[in-house]
Design a protein that fits this description.
Length: 690
Amino acid sequence: KMTQQMRDLQLAQARKPPGPSSPNAAKRLYRNLSGKFRVNYTSFDESSLVGRGEKEKLRKSYLFQGSAALFEAVELQDLDRIQELLKQYSPEELDLNTPNSEGLLPLDIAIMTNNAPIARALLQAGAKESPHFMSLESRSLHLSTLVREAEQRVNELTAQVVNEAPNTDCSEKEKQLKAWEWRFRLYKRMKAGFEHARVPDAPTNVHLSVASSSSVQVTFWEPLSINSAVVTKYKVEWSCSPTFLPPLGEAVIDKLKNLHFTIQGLVSGTAYYVRVSAYNMKGWGPPQASVPPCAIPSNWREYDGRTPRRRGQAEALDHLLGQVKTVHQHCICHEPCKNQPQSRKHSVSKSLKHLFHPGSKFLKTLKRGLYLTAIFYKDDNILVTHEDQIPVVEIDDTYSCLLMQDFLWFTKVSCMWDEILWLRQCVTVSQSSCSCILQTRFKMLLAISQMQGLLGIQDLGQVFFEPVKDKQGNILIVTLKEVKTNQNFESVRWVPICKLQTSRKSVSSPEEPTALDTLLISVQDKLAYHQRSSHALTPGLYLGYLKLCSAVDQIRVLVPEQLPNILCHVKIRSNPNISREEWEWLQKMASAEEPIPAEPDADTSQNPLFHELQVAIKELMTLVNIPLQEAKDFRLYSQEVLDFGDQVSFLLLLPPSDDVCTAPGQNNPYTPRSGFLTLPLQIFELGEER
């Protein structure tokens, strides 16, 4: 009996219609609808007496009304309302490609009334034309039928209004008559728009470029004249023959947000011809051949057959580190490691409670020495101890002057936060030599372990490119890490940065602030640097400017503040690939030891890269505040193209050899405008790798 009851219960549950994915989803959809579609509201709370089936019916009703609202907005040519609906609902919720009772889609109405802005908005949202219009004749017949039926309905309602006595029913008939008269005019306008339209002109600015050793990319613009009909798709064709006989392939592009297409799977060294044509409701327009008319898939590496510089480097470094670990695995220092877990599994929320434990060893004040501080931030909040202090631990209380080499060594250690215990134990063995450098670095590793233990977090983030110092002899090494999780940590104190800055009681004078006060004053600048240093360039080919300056113990490199992990640069073009032909031209110029000519000659007039470089060099010289006439002594680095992945590549512009690196005391007549900074070369290399 019990088994039968369970079966009956499962069967009853299976028959229940599914409820909405969220009880508030229908409420949000309802509120976003236009006021004229609102109905009496019924509570959508979980405690509502309305059953799941009723909720689903109401949800579908609101979605249906949203679809109806979209059709009405297109018919009324209300672009603002259309954009609002497309923002509030997904294409699936609006049934964007489901025809109405007249067999029309929203895009059909937009293009046949020749409303280009609305048509473009619908196309970008994924709208399609009706598949029922298989030919021009079928579309013309359908429009004629709609016009004839609307006209017939208008005549019928007109006769009823004229012949009937005035009453309530007559008033309703008059409303229907006005609605059908408006629809009759709409259908006639659509029919006239279709009859007067012609096929579109050819696309403009069809440009062909080499994308790789097995692909080419074509970019194009809309036709200058669309002949009273919106273009809804494009066709790209390619062939090995200029007559396109036989054709090798074609692709139809109906996503018109970006007008470009990459033809892949081609044979390196073979010339391919490409052309593009546009389509509207009247059919395909004439094709437009690309400029240049053909392209040969290739890459600059084919010039001398060289392999990528970084190929296998990461694997080689991992292998080298493994060998070092193998050498140390039998030493006495490694024995304690066997009893330690490989990675600490503490959750952040649990381990961060140590911040507020009375026995924590975070410092409140500094006493002339070397210290480590870790800044964790989320949005505009910063993580502090239970005493509203940024976490600080001591490295060495007798260290009053941080050597640059020690600081740079610390930045390299930041790439191995998970290996601190192993590094610390191996340095312990080497400490018998009593080297001051080794002792300092061992203390650095101890401080890192202490910070990791107190926070319960292995990854302390990225090291800021310079320590914070004060006149009292305090030095702060700063690490920065952004916490992106939305989890609410228990007993953890996140304090707004502005509140921490205003509430901290300084113990120093404004003329001689302590390192902690200086850090707090400049913390927002440091967070901005940290965020900008993780930004990536958009795909493309760039022209970079290499400028160095040397000091006694370091070399620094000029970088933009907005992107400090990249050299000063301007974008040459969106295609990152340098073809073999382009590289040969650059090699020819380099071997002739001539600057890029100001005016094109016979060899360069048809070279797109020449014109692109001219524009880029002028822009770059303006950016770094160097007179253009000085650029005649600059040279392009011709040994290689610097590839950063598959999507970003650099050509380097170098000053004369005597000016590449400015020596101490040497006067630099051309100083960049504001917006630049110089980073230690090792810091820049680490940031580039990140």
